[in-house]
């Protein structure tokens, strides 16, 4: 493949630093690095310095703050659907990939690059997510995926390559290569090392965003989350922008040991993998959003959303954010959110987030209809005909079975 200029999705970590050097040696092309600030929680300037150290021109180094765009245009739309993959996973890695791909293609167009590159392995989901995004946005782009090309087929081989080329390597507290992680404002994931044995419990010192539930405060924390049109807009009465709001919820939930998930999931490429996730603020949003919908959504609309949600979650997990079917489902989901406005109160305590209050100007909850006391709006005798009509086919079936 002949390549003149390539835009590399670059984190500054082991994999992408080795890839940068590999691209220089293999393709002899001009390298442009792109580092997205999605709220990883770490300083990104070291990525700039490492790219310069490896020979990238300063004008070819892009570090973009995408935190508000990430939360506003990707996280919030996903949470309007109460999205969970395989019933539990809040898709923290999956939802970041389309934004990275989008910005990478924008830079490629701006600098006249004829190729893009990523650091996803040939075993994982991210290669699919990145490349589906690239091709949806620029069908003629060339894609370089070094993990599918080179002979560096293990983490050990990467470390040896890095040492040979004097590429700085991060170490964990024990002086070892760290877990394979992905972090953004919504979550952090951990894979590899001891986690490859699904029977082994993770070390407590692995976690970075949540305290252990048993070490969380002995008194509960109450938090109120306000929604407008399906999206959160305020915490405890304070209006906040998208990134600031999620940051605040991360702090509250993390301090109370909320948001840990240990999961064996089904990858799109066909294998099962074990990962551990911390999604503190996202866990609060998920619980609170469903609570405010319980007051404001019509039963039929709510149940339809629940029916399509697994399909919507699967599309995001598999990398089809820019597909027409995801956009069609998003239109349906967003249409249901017009009345989803109000406030939810949560009680945070030692790893749990419980709904203890909810109110809305658009509430469909009517005390005069549901009260156990006397009322003048509901005729209980109406239920008899309702039940008999619903029972008619059951009665007919039972009678037919006796003949």
Write up what this structure looks like.
This protein is an alpha/beta fold and about 400 residues long. About 40% of the residues lie in helices and about 20% in strands. The strands form 3 sheets. The chain has a 5-stranded parallel β-sheet with strand order 3-2-1-4-5, with helices on both faces. It is elongated and about 80 Å long.
**Biggest sheet character:** 5 strands, parallel
Name the poorly predicted regions.
none
> What is the gyration radius calculated from CA atoms?
25 Å
Strand order of the largest sheet: 3-2-1-4-5
* Proportion of beta-strand residues: 15-25%
N-to-C SSE series?
EHEHEHHEHEHEEEEEHEEHHHEEHH
The protein's oligomeric status is single chain
**Into which percent range does the helicity of residues fall?**
25-40%
What's the helix count? 12
Distance between the termini: 75 Å
Number of strands: 14
How would you summarize this macromolecular structure in one to three sentences?
With 403 residues, this protein is of the alpha/beta class. The protein is 40% helix and 19% strand. The longest helix is centred in the last third of the chain and has 20 residues.
Descriptors:
403 residues, alpha/beta, 14 strands, elongated, five-stranded antiparallel β-sheet, 12 helices
């Amino acid at each position: 493949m002949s390549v003149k200029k390539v835009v590399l999705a670059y984190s500054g970590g082991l994999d992408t630093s080795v890839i940068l050097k590999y691209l220089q040696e293999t393709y002899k092309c001009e390298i442009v690095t792109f580092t997205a600030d999605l709220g990883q929680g770490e300083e990104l300037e070291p990525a700039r310095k490492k790219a310069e150290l490896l020979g990238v021109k300063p004008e070819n180094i892009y570090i973009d703050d995408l935190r508000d765009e990430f939360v506003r245009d990707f996280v919030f739309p996903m949470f309007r659907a109460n999205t969970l993959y395989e019933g539990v996973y809040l898709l923290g890695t999956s939802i970041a990939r389309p934004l990275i791909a989008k910005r990478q293609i924008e830079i490629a167009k701006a600098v006249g690059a004829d190729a893009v590159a990523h650091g996803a392995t040939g075993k994982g989901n991210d290669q699919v997510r990145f490349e589906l995004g690239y091709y949806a946005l620029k069908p003629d782009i060339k894609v370089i995926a070094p993990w599918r090309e080179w002979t560096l087929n293990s983490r050990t081989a990467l470390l040896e390559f890095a040492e040979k080329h004097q590429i700085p390597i991060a170490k964990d507290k024990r002086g070892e290569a760290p877990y394979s992680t992905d972090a953004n404002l919504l979550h952090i994931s951990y894979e590899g090392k001891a986690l490859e044995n699904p029977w082994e419990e993770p070390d407590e010192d692995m976690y970075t965003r949540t305290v252990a539930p048993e070490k969380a405060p002995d008194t509960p924390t109450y938090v109120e989350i306000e929604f407008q049109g399906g999206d959160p807009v305020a915490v405890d009465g304070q209006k906040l922008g998208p990134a600031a709001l999620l940051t605040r919820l991360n702090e509250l939930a993390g301090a109370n040991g909320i948001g840990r998930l240990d999961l064996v999931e089904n990858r799109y490429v066909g294998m099962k993998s074990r990962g551990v996730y911390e999604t503190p603020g996202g866990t609060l949003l998920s619980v609170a959003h469903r609570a405010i919908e319980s007051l404001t959504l019509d039963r039929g609309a709510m149940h339809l959303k629940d029916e399509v949600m697994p399909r919507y979650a699967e599309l995001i997990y598999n990398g089809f954010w820019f597909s027409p079917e995801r956009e069609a489902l998003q239109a349906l989901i967003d249409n249901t959110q017009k009345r989803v406005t109000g406030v939810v109160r949560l009680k945070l305590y030692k790893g749990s987030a419980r709904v203890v209050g909810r109110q809305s100007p658009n509430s469909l909850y009517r005390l005069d209809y549901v009260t156990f006391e006397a009322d003048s709006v509901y005729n209980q005798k109406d239920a008899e005909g309702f039940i008999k009509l619903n029972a008619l086919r059951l009665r007919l079936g039972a009678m037919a079975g006796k003949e």
